[in-house]
Amino acid sequence: MVKVRAARPAEAEDLTALVMRSKAHWGYDAAFLAACAPELRIRAEDVTARRLVVAENGRGEVLGVASLEGTAPRAELGLLFVDPSAVGRGVGRLLYRDVLRRAVELGVRRLVIDSDPHAAGFYRAMGAVAVAAAPAVEADGTALVRFEAAPVPLADWARAWTGGGRAVHLGNVGEFNAQFADATLDREQRPAHHYACLAAFYSPYPAALVLPRPVPRGWTELVCRQLGWTGVEVYDDLLDADPGLADAVRARPALAALLTGAGLPLVPWGRTRSFGRLAGRPWRPGELRYESKSAAHELFGRILADGGHPGIVLPRQWRADGRWAAARMVAARTRAGESTVLKSEHGVGGSGTTVLTPARVRAAGGARAVLRRLPRGPLLVEEYVGGAASGADEGARDLTYDGFVDETGRAHEVGAAVMEVVDGCYRGATVGPGVVPAWVEKPLTDFGTAVGRELADSGYRGWFDVDFVADGAGRLAPTETNLRLTGPSVAFMVAARLDALRGAGHLVRIADRVELGARLPEAQLDELCATLARGCAELGAVFVPAIPTGAFEPAPWLGVLVAARSSEVLDAAEALVRAEALAVGAMFGPS
């Protein structure tokens, strides 16, 4: 186990020797090293003045040294050297992250790094940004590469979410869905158990993950490495078929006592009666009533009736008494040339939502023919919000606002995201600075905040989001609330962690389904994910596998997160991931 500690003045001579060995590792000749020696020498008085720390192993052997120099708001990473014997073992990463952590504590908001050209790839992978500035030079005139990072503390909302500490994450996606008994939801909850893997990201830094199905060990190891987590316990394979994960934990008294007795927050995907029993939290009747799409529509109408939300429009919605009543409504709208959205009360991720254009209805043989193919159950018929943003905002039609209500009843704003929605089905989301068009931010945030207040007053406690569609006239239409964690919420959690770990400014994209060319054995899946992590790092991006278990399905897929500091790098990283996933899968034959 490698740990970081403060350097000691008596170590100055040994640390100088380590620095020179590290410099020589890059193949510089003796004359160059001799010219660098005065600048790289560490004196006893430097240890405190330059804020030196060292990384040492369990045997007390020093493996690396780093310094944080200057005063807030601007400081410098003066030294970061790793002994050649420890290169590639994560020592440099550990030291760099420690420097950023200490910089935050000192109030530093701009960290300057003048890097040896050989180390430029490392700093790029760590999230530092190359800047156009007059370069510093080595003793022989070699130009150094200047980078900067923006150290920031964990976001205020993220500290409020779990009290600033770690949490136990319960992947009860299937259990949450099952309580609604919606006809559009898979009875076996197989997709839900895959999405339970997102429990890794229910807060910025978990203490334990509780999962219904087994997950690959290599997956958890890579996620922990990418996000700088240590000491994360994983309790998986707790269910055979039944979706009740909280009850499965309660059936193991020792595990239940371990998870609930540590004094850590217990964070579920969503609230259920079973979770209330496990957490010792009273279940409030009607707590999830606004998970219903018709109830949410009524809530939106009440908020808009009070005024104060210009630019927000509410699509009309009707409840159909049965399938044929819905068919008659759709047929009438089709004859009028109007598109229609059919919704179930509790479909998730777009399941139970169907967009019907007049052309699609006619091609299917009429409204009755369309509805005959849909799952049975109550249906909502909703006006389709037409049009699309154009120009720079072309991809920002589907948006979402995320927030949560804490146990005291206070609503907190998290932020807004742009979602990828295809034919009514959610496929992913992107969060981060500049992602949401400027014209959208205020009306979206104001309305989402108003929904949060209403949810708090209704007795709801937990995470929520409000989904919107933007039309071609610059208006927003709220379409539903989700009283649970979501794909965008996972992206917000990862962005908060990466900002605190690597410096501010991360864009994070969650892509629900990256298709694989074939089912991969577990070892090959681990190898693919390691390759993707290296490839993204070379671009200056971060790759995190989010849902690994879909890779073992007959039609294999992988859920992923990618992060970067610019939309161009983010797009390039996603393209790399998708291409490599198909290419590596193809090596194992067709699905």
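(ticket continues) Second input and output from the same batch:
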Amino acid sequence: MTTAAAVSSSDGHSAVFAGTDVCREAGLALPGEANRPRFEHDIWDFTQVIGLPAQMARCTRRFDFAAITDARWRVVAKELVLAMLTPRHASVIPLPRAYRTALHLNTCAGRLGELTRFFTWLGDQKVPGLEQLDTRLCEAYLAHRRYVLDEHGTVVGEQSPATRRSAAQIVVDLVNYRELFTADRVPEDLRPWGGATASAVAEMPCGRSQNKTAPVEDSVLQPMLAAALYLVSTLGPHAVELAREVQEADRTSSCKAKGLRPAGPAPVAEFTSLLAEYERTCTPLPMLAEHHIADRLADGWDPDDRLLPVATGVLARQAGASQFWSWLPALRGPLEATLAVVGVEKVFGREVVKVKAADGASSLAWTLPLHRLEAVALVGIVRTAAITTLAAVSGMRASELMELRIGCRRPPEEPVPGLTRFRIGSKVVKGQPLGGTEDEWVVVEPVYRAVELAEQLHDSPQDGALLFGRFAFDVRYRWCRNWVNSRSGQRLGLAPIPDGPVNLRMLRRTLALEMAYRPGGVLASKIHLKHIAVATTEGYASRPGGAQAELLAEVNKHESDRNLDLVLAEFRNYQQGILPAGPGARSLTEFFAHVDAKLDATAAKAPKTQRSDRDVLNLLTKRAKVLHLGPANYCWFTDPSRALCLKLAGTPTADRPLVGMCDSARCPQATHHPCHRPVWAEHAERTETFIGQLGTTRKTERNRLQADYDRALRVVTEIDAASTSMNEESA
């Protein structure tokens, strides 16, 4: 095996990569005029590399080796990083434990950061060279990275397994690439942690037994989505106008506006004309922000001065001056006279545009007057609501959201009359070559409108510009939640959002579970969410115990819990006199009566009585296992031989109902409940409309629709009757 040249501990140069053009060797494309980092440079700048994902932070695009003070270790770090970027280099291929696939720049940046910390720690331990590295030092460094210490050196917490794995991985890499290094090397016989992998050393959970990302709690998801949709649909158009107001004010009233005069005599004539215009239009004078008022008071202003809250600097720039200099003695009279006539008010959001409150209780102004920073913050809140809607309802990854660009909305399609399909285009980054792969997502209309709103709120909406760019969703979400829970959000009737973790991974996980509930949902989830990881795709190749089996088991668990909650809710309805309707109502009512009798304390023959929810659920579990949800009914699949759908399909021995063929008005195992009434009522209303549009000659079609209409009315009547009959009897 070919190895690197003998170690040289003094010259600080590499015998393997000397003079190497890093980007050319790693296959990274750069614009023609860009500076090309070379191996000897202490900073490798990849900022202009073509195809880097927007998700990659700019600080991670610059590899700073100068932070490693020892010249020998700096060469080791460069050789290790470049070897990870170029696994097919002639000197890397012979290494038996080297990576065979080039690592991403983002991953290499993380390795360099951990390597820098390791070398700094070795310097603090007075270790003269890597030849002195032994298992004791490896264990000591892992312990150093395992715990969080306060300023007194006391342990106050423990780092995540990912941090511990990163620390162990650096040591393993120095061992695996030992023969490559030309400036310093670890001992040849070093085998830290007995040759175990970094994940095993860090006690990293494998993630095979369950998905580590939890879905968003329903108690958080419902008010969060409701607030996001309200902000996008109701406040969105007004936020666009507010953003334009801010941009126009910045253009005309900011300190950087063009054509402003420097200091000089007080422009009395210009101010007089400006103030006269304020009085003519009855426009309040601009108000100063609270922190600027505090600055004035600190400078000695009288708290009772009438001009204290007036933004004189804004007035000065409107009058053509760069700043309000020492002109107050000359202009106090005109300013106070105008102030007495028009008053003073915050600059933005003065136009009173009324909107419907989120709770539908009233109509009120969409916002109160705002200072500039408050207006910018409100626009940011609406933009965050658009991101939240897009992430929660489309399921796009963070990297895919950050690759969205102005003009990503595809023209709506109408494959059949009345059915509109919306698409947006972005890039799939995960698992793809550098630059990503162009792809499209089919989305619902609220997502399409959220993207449209985000384009309108963009500071520079030029076609092809990044729509969001790189953003920190966790921070933006906290701001949005705080605003919803503040007086501003409560004034609009928004439900408070409880505390609880929400991030883009959790939103994607939540959507995946909801989609997987549907028939064929696992396959639909794979296609829509664009899963490409081996752990996911192996399940679709029928590999025993693969990701599909794990996902199906988890989905089935969630489905069982949901069915049990539904059965318990219907049992509580039965106890309150709200009965089921439909052909299977009698059988279900008898079952509920049987359970209720067991819960009757007066009928209990033994001292033990079953009253807790847990006992009730135990009695209802068997029935919950046979519950299947139809579009407008519940199917209690207790006896396949009685299932009408199986008889019609000619498959009487099937173990599941064919919900798509369900005729719940005739099937003896189907029931209707109050939650199904809106579906049947809407169906009856639409059918009646169709009947009214038929011509007199279309008798066959009329008869068929009339029968359908009569059936829908009958079901609605039965649901209403079942919901009131028992209450009337008890009364």
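Agent notes: The mean pLDDT is 86. The CA atoms of residues 20 and 123 lie 28 Å apart. Closing as not reproducible unless the customer responds.
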